[in-house]
Amino acid sequence: MLSDKVNVLAVNPGSTSTKLAVYSDYNEVWRKTLIHDVSMLRAYHEITDQLDFRKKVVLESLKEVPDFSLEHLSAVAARGGLLRPLAGGVYRVNDEMKNDLRTARYGSHASNLGALIADEIASETGVDAFIVDPVVVDEFTPLARYSGIPEIPRKSIFHALNQKATAKRAAKELEKTYKECNLIVAHMGGGTSIGMHEKGRVVDVNNALDGEGPFSIERAGTVPAGDWMRYVLSHSDRPAALQKKLTGRGGVVAYLGTNNAKAIEDTIEKHKKGEKTDGLDGAECLEVMKALCYQISREISSLAAVVSGNVDAVVLTGGLAFSEFVTGEIKGRVSFIAPVMIYPGENELEALASAVVDALRGKEEILTYQA
């Protein structure tokens, strides 16, 4: 690795995995996904108790990187966790941030480990650690916060990292800056978030954590409020199961019994050809996935009203954007709004690294987290 390059380690911890990559400027040098044994993780009472274990396996894995040592690092970039609501951007990890993550002040999630792992590795090598566009990015307008019940305002919790990185990529392709564009970005995966990016700010987006918006592969989305209230009252002795109904066992999983989007799509293709399908019902798979695309399209279309229809592009991203069936269904319904641009995958490690490279090169402001 060259000394005149900005060399960044990107760390993205998930519930049972840790994704790693090393970048030299904007070029990926190495990538690896570490899968952690679930039974081992259960031995830790709190998620932050996993810190030493996760840091150790990260450092062991880095020994695999060709011609690399920690002394080559310019910075460590990590996925941001559950922090106070904040504007999008690059934040230097500081004591206030670490304290909020360690104490789970705003909630407990595996992503809380990102900044803590990054900080420990960065401290040992004499560089800074950063987070970029955590899930709690909140750039709502006042009108977007209204829910109809004053005690329950709408919240901004979404796939901010990939949404913003993909929006900037789309803006560049449109030969504009991110702050010059109005873009509707749909991140479609296990959870789905659809945001209105107005001149560089996500002024409205569904809460992808708690299940607002269209149903997705594993989330129920917005459900009929009265019916849900009565269902909750009749199952109040099973709070954990109720939560699973919304996030984890809702959406496509609830209808089809699987979260394997590839198997579902293969079944649909066989059904269209009149071939025999094993396990899954082809007609049912087709209707459920059409309904998913219908709801995503409806959400996209509703966001166009936020900017009075002045939309530069509709951007589809996330794991489901690999599906030509899904993107084709949605494109057919929303292309009247604006051109549809497709960028499959999550691209989170790339987004982390490129944002920090930009910040260290003075192209993006480095922000300070305040508890």
Name the descriptors.
2 domains; five-stranded mixed β-sheet; 371 residues; Nucleotidyltransferase, domain 5; single chain; 12 helices; alpha/beta
Describe this structure in words.
The protein has two domains: 7-138 and 349-368, ATPase, nucleotide binding domain (Nucleotidyltransferase, domain 5, 2-Layer Sandwich); 162-344, ATPase, nucleotide binding domain (Nucleotidyltransferase, domain 5, 2-Layer Sandwich). Helix content is 36%, strand content 19%. It has twelve helices and twelve strands. The chain has helices at 38-41, 51-62, 95-102, 112-125, 160-173, 225-234, 239-246, 252-256, 261-272, 282-304, 324-334, 348-360, and strands at 7-13, 17-24, 27-35, 75-79, 90-92, 128-132, 182-188, 192-198, 201-205, 313-318, 340-344, 366-368. The strands form two sheets. The protein has a seven-stranded mixed sheet with strand order 3-2-1-4-6-5-12, sandwiched between helices. Strands 9-8-7-10-11 form a five-stranded mixed sheet, with helices on both faces. α5 crosses α12. The longest helix is centred in the C-terminal third of the chain and has 23 residues, at 282-304. The model has no long low-confidence stretch (mean pLDDT 94).
Helix and strand topology:
Blueprint: E1 7-13, E2 17-24, E3 27-35, H1 38-41, H2 51-62, E4 75-79, E5 90-92, H3 95-102, H4 112-125, E6 128-132, H5 160-173, E7 182-188, E8 192-198, E9 201-205, H6 225-234, H7 239-246, H8 252-256, H9 261-272, H10 282-304, E10 313-318, H11 324-334, E11 340-344, H12 348-360, E12 366-368
Parallel strand pairs: 1-4, 4-6, 5-12, 7-10, 10-11
Antiparallel strand pairs: 1-2, 2-3, 5-6, 7-8, 8-9
Helix pairs in contact: 2-4, 3-4, 5-12, 9-10, 10-11
